[in-house]
Structure prediction request, 315 residues.
Amino acid sequence: MSGFYEDIEPGRKIDLGSHKFTQDEIVAFAERFDPQPFHLDEEVAKASLFGGLCASGWHTACIWMRLMVQHEQRLREELVTSGEPAFGFGVSPGFRDLTWPIPVYVGDVITYSIEYLEKRPLRSRPGWGLLLHQDEGINQNGEVVMRMTSNLFVARRES
Amino acid sequence: MAVSEKLYWEDIEVGKTIALGEKRVEKDEIIAFAQEFDPQPFHLDEQAAKDTMIGELIASGWHTNVMLMRMLYDSLLKDCASLGSGGLEEVKWPEAVRPGDVIRGTYTCLESRASKSRPDVGICKVVCEVINQDDLVVMSCRLSHFFRRRNGERQQ
Prediction:
């Protein structure tokens, strides 16, 4: 995600693009996966701690995932276009410290990023390394709406 | 809804595991979720998955997360004075979720305390697990879960 393991520079932060959260989309996600009233109903949401209709935190995080995969797909295409081998996609064993410091409200535009923190080769999986990264979503006012620290298996070039 | 029908912070027992129901995970929904949120080959297509590090079609970990969320809502939050959560300390996906798996969720409160800043709010430290038909944990998470206290509704 990131391309190959060897090309990852710890400390580098990458902009993954932005997403505008519409009311229809917030409600549609909530109906499927998180039908708590403050994600569904404007009146209930106004009276809640959130003070207005807001996206499920899972929705905010799932859009990070989508933009991340799209970024990866672009990197892969660039490599293939320039005649290099394409890297294989890796899975993630999990993440920690996922926080949603403030809600994502209807109409908010969230800009997502990934920052590479550390990488190490894996003895148990030759051909793969493990990348630790920090991920963020920031709203149009510069406020952090989501942050987490994740692990990801990344393909090595010399596998 | 009458106040007595709802679960408040005081009703969540420390150390007791609450079952969150069961769900069969269909291939179509694995693919539909992936198309929308996690379009990687091992979540999209059985053939394409064969050439990947995983070698087979599996559900996105984010899909497992939201399936847990849905089970949590249907089995607990729906009838409960939940105020949500500000995040998760840890999420692990130790095993894959495959088409046809039957998963179930659990919710266990490990610690419970009243909020210092909000007298009408209580906080539970919770572990949730998603377990498959072979009793393997496919997802686990730790979170702080906020509830309204029984006295809270009267104060407002």
The mean pLDDT of chain B is 93. The CA atoms of residues 90 and 141 of chain B lie 5 Å apart.
